[in-house]
Design brief:
Layout lengths: L8 E2 L3 H9 L3 E4 L7 E3 L9 E2 H21 L9 H14 L16 E3 L9 E2 L6 H7 L17 E4 L5 H10 L9 E7 L4 E7 L2 E7 L2 E3 L3 H4 L8 H9 L1 E3 L1 E8 L3 H4 L6 E5 L5 E4 L9 E9 H8 L3 H16 L2 H4 L1 E8 L10 E3 L10 H4 L5 E3 L11 H21 L1
Parallel strand pairs: 3-14, 11-19
Antiparallel strand pairs: 1-7, 2-7, 3-4, 5-6, 8-9, 9-10, 12-18, 13-16, 13-17, 14-15, 15-16
The chain binds phenylalanine (PHE).
Length: 406
């Protein structure tokens, strides 16, 4: 399987609490891998470099330069002599510097022959680039991703696919309480209740309730007739849909494990595929599914315009530059998905200018008559299920208090 949408869960998000409570098994999502590749075509790289090699070189040279600058007294105003000693001690370790405070490669970069039995001490990867070459390649720009509060390892995924979560929620809530295939066409606050009109199977129906929580995407809500006022309408229109896309590439063999020794993780590139994901499950299996592109904005839109066959062709051509011919020859099938093209969603996530607490969204954060709103687009973690869950809890908690006090 591939997760065309949400795919990774940090440890601090409430989504994991729901997995625990609902009995949805989880496993590690490999968000970083020292053996995955970096490839910047536009800065003249002719072959990919492993993360571990790029990190050794960037950290090595940055450490060397800072250590030398410190040694020359460039930091005398900022640091005491003891501070400077401690800083250099750290840099020597962090950058694997030699006695003269120079970086000259080392085992962190990797080997061409790995260390093994007596007689095989290993052969270090040669061709250590100069500091100038390392900075020119731009590989360092990818390192801070893994420091992010929402992206740092360990990350998790539900075993078997992200839809295990909504399936488990539906089971616990009771499937009879969930109406699918129902496209909302009108929301009317009647003062003493709410009527929601919808079409299902070609027929127009309506449902009356005491209250309504609108959890549709704002771009869809903005097109649905309602009587909630212009404040609600202009707030909905201020929030704009964003693009993201993925292609799953199914392979006949796990050549990335067999030939490249890559088990999970993400390869980063400046080509328009942006991110290539190695699967975090099914290791050593026969087949496997790579995410051949996970991109956003203009890159996603440019793939959206193509036919599925053309998308596959373009994504594979990019991958071949990094991984070689098997990226093409071992391909069995592909599936690509573009959220702007998905009916009833028409967005991957949203941009909420000014953040969800900006004054213009007040009519969405507070009930309008008997109608409430909820969604990740009304949270500080948009593009995460955590945002949707916490926003829903806020709406339900407010509603609960209102009903108790009524
Ligand atoms: N949650 C999505 C992801 O992890 C979208 C996202 C990307 C959100 C990057 C924030 C930062 O891919």
């Amino acid at each position: 399987y591939m997760n065309a949408g949400p795919a990774r869960l940090p440890q601090w998000m409430v989504t994991l609490d729901y997995c625990r409570e609902l009995g949805v098994p989880i496993e590690v999502f490999t968000n970083t891998n020292a053996d995955a590749y970096l490839y910047n075509e536009s800065s003249g790289m002719t072959k990919p470099v492993r993360y571990r090699t790029a990190k050794a070189d960037v950290y090595g040279y940055v450490s060397e330069l800072l250590a030398k600058a410190t040694d020359k007294g460039a930091l005398d105003k900022e640091l005491t002599a003891t501070d400077q000693e401690k800083l250099v001690e750290f840099l020597k370790d962090f950058g694997e510097l030699g006695d003269k405070l120079t970086y000259g490669g080392g085992e962190r970069r990797g080997y061409t022959t790995v260390p093994a039995a007596a007689g095989t001490p290993g052969v270090l990867l040669g061709d250590i680039p100069s500091a100038s070459e390392v900075f020119a390649s731009g590989v360092g720009r990818y390192f801070s991703f893994e420091f992010g509060f929402d992206q740092a390892m360990l990350m998790f995924q539900p075993v078997g696919g992200m839809d295990r979560i909504p399936r488990a929620l539906t089971r616990e809530i009771g499937a009879h309480r969930v109406r699918t295939g129902a496209a909302v066409s009108k929301i009317t606050d009647k003062g003493n209740g709410v009527t929601v009109t919808y079409t299902q199977g070609g027929r127009t129906k309506s449902i009356d309730a005491d209250y309504c929580i609108g959890a549709l995407p704002p771009n869809i809500l903005a097109r649905i007739p309602h009587n909630l006022g212009s404040g609600v309408q202009s707030a909905l229109e201020a929030i704009t849909p964003q693009s993201a896309a993925k292609i799953g590439l199914e392979y006949r063999s796990r050549w990335w494990e067999l030939d490249h020794g890559i088990y999970g993780g993400i390869t980063e590139t400046d080509q328009d595929v942006t991110h290539i994901w190695h699967p975090s499950y099914g290791f050593h299996g026969e087949r496997g599914v790579l995410i051949g592109y996970y991109n956003y904005g203009g890159d996603a839109d440019s793939y959206a315009k193509l036919t599925p066959e053309e998308r596959e062709k373009r994504a594979v051509a990019a991958g071949v530059k990094i991984y070689g011919e098997k990226y093409r020859s071992e391909l069995a099938s592909s599936f690509s998905h573009h959220w702007r093209q998905t009916p009833h969603l028409e967005a991957a996530w949203h941009d909420t200018p000014g953040g969800p607490d900006d004054a213009r969204y007040k009519p969405l954060n507070e009930p309008t008559g008997r109608v409430y709103f909820a969604g990740d687009w009304l949270s500080y973690t948009d593009a995460w299920q955590h945002g949707a869950f916490t926003s829903a809890r806020k709406a339900v908690t407010t509603l609960h208090a209102r009903v108790l006090s009524a």
